[in-house]
Amino acid sequence: MAFITCLTVVSLLVSPITSSPVDPSHVDPADILKRDPVPAGYQSPPYYPTPKGGWVSDWAEAYAKAYDVVSNMTLAEKINMTTGTGIFMGPCVGQTGSAERFGIPNICLMDSPLGIRNTDHNTAFPPGITVGATFDKDLMYARGVALGEEARGKGVNVLMGPVVAPLGRKPRGGRNWEGFGADPSLQAIGAAQTIKGMQSTGVIATLKHFIGYEQEEDRMSSIITQGYSSNIDDRTLHELYLWPFAEGVKAGVGSVMIAYNDVNGSACSQNSKLINGVLKDELGFQGFVVTDWLAQIGGVSSALAGLDMSMPGDGAVPLFGDSYWGSDLSKSVLNGTVPLDRLNDMVTRIVATWFKFGQDKDFPLPNFSSNTLDRTGEIYPGALFSPIGIVNQYVNVQANHNIVARAVARDAITLLKNDHNILPLKRNDSLKVFGTDAGGNPDGINSCSDHGCDKGVLVEGWGSGTSRLPYLITPQDAIANRSSNAKFYITDTFPSDVTANSNDVAVVFINSDSGENYITVEGNPGDRTVSGLYAWHNGDELVQAAAEKFSKVVVVVHTVGPIILEKWIDLPSVKSVVFAHLPGQEAGNSLVDVLFGDYSPSGHLPYTIPRNESDYPKSVGLINQPFGQIQDTFTEGLYIDYRHFQSANITPRYPFGHGLSYTTFNITEPTLSVITPLDSEYPAARPAKNATPTYSDVIPPPSEVAWPKTNFTRIWRYLYPYLDNPSAAAKTNSTSYPYPSGYSTIPKPAPRAGGAEGGNPALWDIAYSVNVTVRNTGSRPGKAVAQLYVELPSSLALDTPRLQLRQFEKTRTLAPGQSEVVTMELTRKDLSVWDVVVQDWKAPVGGEGVKIWVGQSVGDLSVVCEVGGECGSA
Ligand SMILES: *[C@@H]1O[C@H](CO)[C@@H](O)[C@H](O)[C@H]1NC(C)=O
Ligand SMILES: *[C@@H]1O[C@H](CO)[C@@H](O)[C@H](O)[C@H]1NC(C)=O
Ligand SMILES: *[C@@H]1O[C@H](CO)[C@@H](O)[C@H](O)[C@H]1NC(C)=O
Ligand SMILES: *[C@@H]1O[C@H](CO)[C@@H](O)[C@H](O)[C@H]1NC(C)=O
Ligand SMILES: *[C@@H]1O[C@H](CO)[C@@H](O)[C@H](O)[C@H]1NC(C)=O
Ligand SMILES: *[C@@H]1O[C@H](CO)[C@@H](O)[C@H](O)[C@H]1NC(C)=O
Ligand SMILES: *[C@@H]1O[C@H](CO)[C@@H](O)[C@H](O)[C@H]1NC(C)=O
Ligand SMILES: *[C@@H]1O[C@H](CO)[C@@H](O)[C@H](O)[C@H]1NC(C)=O
Ligand SMILES: *[C@@H]1O[C@H](CO)[C@@H](O)[C@H](O)[C@H]1NC(C)=O
Ligand SMILES: *[C@@H]1O[C@H](CO)[C@@H](O)[C@H](O)[C@H]1NC(C)=O
């Protein structure tokens, strides 16, 4: 995240208090600082030292180049690479210091996962949840490429996406829409495709937020409050929340952002088990780890725990010109408390990543300012006195990306119900269109900062995961353009004077919004606290009123996640329901493409739609409490979303993966080929690590961080690596530092589950390949999605969800009668469970007892293969 005004910084710092119904004058500071104990059994063990980067052969060339540079860097240049220059201290939401002697500029980091934030002439793509609903790997990749091209064109080195945490554990969670859906494999595939696409353009992707970040309220720790603790057992961490991070690291992601919250009572920004142990050792991550904005709460502690970059660089109170790192990290290195080789590893990781994506060659400098849209302005708005200059060059980076933006939005559209084939509409159907969600925002398309309002058609959630709209095609515009006979009632109160003819089709638009915690919209502080899982603005009443008057009602829903449809879904006149998710700038065009039948809908639900909110496990509700630290314990374990509904035997309203078409498909002729037999429980032994760079361990002379004497204009409040009295810092005795318990500088033995980026490469051996034939059995062209779910045998002696999505494939457009053979591959890891005792992935030997199901949703599985047995219809 990041923000655009000083006011939002202040509101962010105080929001943990103001969001609770407590009179601040009665607050005892001792109560605020009190920590509720982490439940028995949950703990975050120490894991030191940080494993060094550079041992993976894919990165060898980049590390060799980085070594050549870093070995020549002064201490000041090294510190510059690790620390942001301060909030509002440059064009981007965050930038590091520079090392001009080596051609390394201030490295620019920018939001967001759906487009370049707070600028102009950019594309506002559909967000993650919409991308997930396409179930289309090619579109996932193509959108990633387009995002990367736009970032590069603006001079953004690091574009902060994709999002895979939140994973979607809590249906009311505010930022679920930034990720791809409530399933680890869907998140993993969405993220890997996005990363590969983005990074193919030379832009560094950021996989975020690591980890267990499942609600907005009380997420942040600060000097006055404790962010919540997500208490997650080891198996659940591995099989659900870590899964997409592992696949993203395997895809070569260049950076990972840590989350605000704690895990097992230890802040993610300085949790050594998570960063050193899980991410850098087990997953073999070679890039750099960056904080979320102002998530750092300690200097030495975070350095030792494996953090590599502090953003935006500020300390406990932003804009005061101090930092947990910057000059303080200079001190910690000079006094020996932070080992020089830890600093060298931080810097090598950052510089190697910069080389890996070719940013040393012809990478543009930022040509925009995320602080203002004016041509000229303050170059450092956070400074006391800033120089003024040209800050915006208005570079148009949109190219033809509207095409992929529209294709994603269109192919995500999910048809839940279509009685009597009311859809598609005809051009001359008599349409009566209702709801403000069909129209525009009367105050202007970008009138609410970071989309912090719900006015007009909902095309993005709110917060830092947004971008400004270059234009917006509303449903009203697009329908008016396509239909010869449409009347619009852009109101959320059903008009009393509407006359209904028997042939009329009423099209009712409703929505449900959510976003990030630093903005509250209509009482919802990010999470859907007040609105719950119901349509906003009396949308349910609007549908009911239309259904009373008209006999043919089509409901179009723009939503961040599941909503409860029970108030109207079974009314006889509600014939069709369309989820258009969050479509971005091409909202109207993508919708009419489907409503009027130019394309059949081909989206599928990236989450379950329940009948009642009480059908979810109790433990996935939001937690809010005035004092102490929220202990959010993931007691439901692996049983979230459809995994829960299946095990609790609750039939939802619509299952995960559901989505109809204007045609019909059948899936037949399953075949299964064994590729690499699972001839042992555990994968083959991991490869050893290659050598990592070694530098001189002589602590540099303090003079390397003295203020420059010539040609230097200091910007007040800007964060520098320099010290007033560097030699004083060098005189302290490092052995007197109270290191965390378990601290060590002796490397741990390489974990057996590791061995390459993502983990042991043998985990990605293809175990089985499954073919099915997908045939269009209806009378219109369309695309189908084949979804593959695995059922693991009870012989693994672990309580495992009955069905888990592991693969999917979307067909090309099939004409009536036409078919396509779809091939889906399963890795060893896809069939494994995490063995907490052995600390490795365990598979059923020979695949004994494994069943592989393929169908069009988790509730509609038409074929099954038993490994070692038959394949046939289910
Ligand atoms: C959290 O605690 C659980 C229970 O002790 C443990 O299995 C798990 O590994 C811990 N996770 C982290 C990241 O510390
Ligand atoms: C680093 O220093 C070595 C030895 O002085 C020199 O050969 C090399 O060119 C330098 N590399 C860079 C990138 O400055
Ligand atoms: C550190 O970065 C700042 C900001 O970009 C720059 O002014 C300064 O010269 C850099 N220091 C060194 C030693 O390169
Ligand atoms: C070294 O400096 C750091 C940063 O100021 C400080 O936190 C730490 O306590 C110092 N170490 C010693 C032994 O004084
Ligand atoms: C801004 O971007 C354009 C196009 O990518 C590039 O030609 C130009 O050099 C950039 N401006 C700066 C200051 O680097
Ligand atoms: C609508 O158009 C179709 C042809 O596309 C025509 O058959 C039908 O009669 C028209 N209906 C009306 C009410 O004009
Ligand atoms: C300082 O800047 C001036 C003018 O840009 C330049 O001529 C001079 O060489 C610089 N001095 C140093 C020590 O870099
Ligand atoms: C540093 O402190 C430790 C313990 O306080 C002491 O044993 C050691 O002699 C000191 N070393 C120096 C160089 O002062
Ligand atoms: C599966 O389909 C692929 C082409 O899609 C084909 O090459 C392969 O032979 C098929 N395998 C089986 C077992 O039918
Ligand atoms: C699938 O569709 C084909 C073509 O319509 C038909 O022959 C076949 O019986 C169908 N199979 C199933 C299992 O519905």
Automatic annotation (TrEMBL):
<keyword id="KW-0136">Cellulose degradation</keyword>
<dbReference type="InterPro" id="IPR013783">
    <property type="entry name" value="Ig-like_fold"/>
</dbReference>
<dbReference type="InterPro" id="IPR050288">
    <property type="entry name" value="Cellulose_deg_GH3"/>
</dbReference>
<keyword id="KW-0732">Signal</keyword>
<dbReference type="InterPro" id="IPR017853">
    <property type="entry name" value="GH"/>
</dbReference>
<keyword id="KW-0378">Hydrolase</keyword>
<comment type="similarity">
    <text>Belongs to the glycosyl hydrolase 3 family.</text>
</comment>
<keyword id="KW-0964">Secreted</keyword>
<protein>
    <recommendedName>
        <fullName>beta-glucosidase</fullName>
        <ecNumber>3.2.1.21</ecNumber>
    </recommendedName>
</protein>
<dbReference type="InterPro" id="IPR036881">
    <property type="entry name" value="Glyco_hydro_3_C_sf"/>
</dbReference>
<keyword id="KW-0119">Carbohydrate metabolism</keyword>
<dbReference type="InterPro" id="IPR026891">
    <property type="entry name" value="Fn3-like"/>
</dbReference>
<dbReference type="GO" id="GO:0008422">
    <property type="term" value="F:beta-glucosidase activity"/>
</dbReference>
<feature type="signal peptide">
    <location>
        <begin position="1"/>
        <end position="19"/>
    </location>
</feature>
<dbReference type="InterPro" id="IPR019800">
    <property type="entry name" value="Glyco_hydro_3_AS"/>
</dbReference>
<comment type="function">
    <text>Beta-glucosidases are one of a number of cellulolytic enzymes involved in the degradation of cellulosic biomass. Catalyzes the last step releasing glucose from the inhibitory cellobiose.</text>
</comment>
<keyword id="KW-0326">Glycosidase</keyword>
<keyword id="KW-0624">Polysaccharide degradation</keyword>
<dbReference type="InterPro" id="IPR002772">
    <property type="entry name" value="Glyco_hydro_3_C"/>
</dbReference>
<feature type="domain" description="Fibronectin type III-like">
    <location>
        <begin position="784"/>
        <end position="858"/>
    </location>
</feature>
<comment type="pathway">
    <text>Glycan metabolism; cellulose degradation.</text>
</comment>
<keyword id="KW-0325">Glycoprotein</keyword>
<dbReference type="Pfam" id="PF01915">
    <property type="entry name" value="Glyco_hydro_3_C"/>
</dbReference>
<dbReference type="GO" id="GO:0030245">
    <property type="term" value="P:cellulose catabolic process"/>
</dbReference>
<dbReference type="InterPro" id="IPR036962">
    <property type="entry name" value="Glyco_hydro_3_N_sf"/>
</dbReference>
<dbReference type="GO" id="GO:0005576">
    <property type="term" value="C:extracellular region"/>
</dbReference>
<dbReference type="Pfam" id="PF14310">
    <property type="entry name" value="Fn3-like"/>
</dbReference>
<dbReference type="Pfam" id="PF00933">
    <property type="entry name" value="Glyco_hydro_3"/>
</dbReference>
<dbReference type="InterPro" id="IPR001764">
    <property type="entry name" value="Glyco_hydro_3_N"/>
</dbReference>
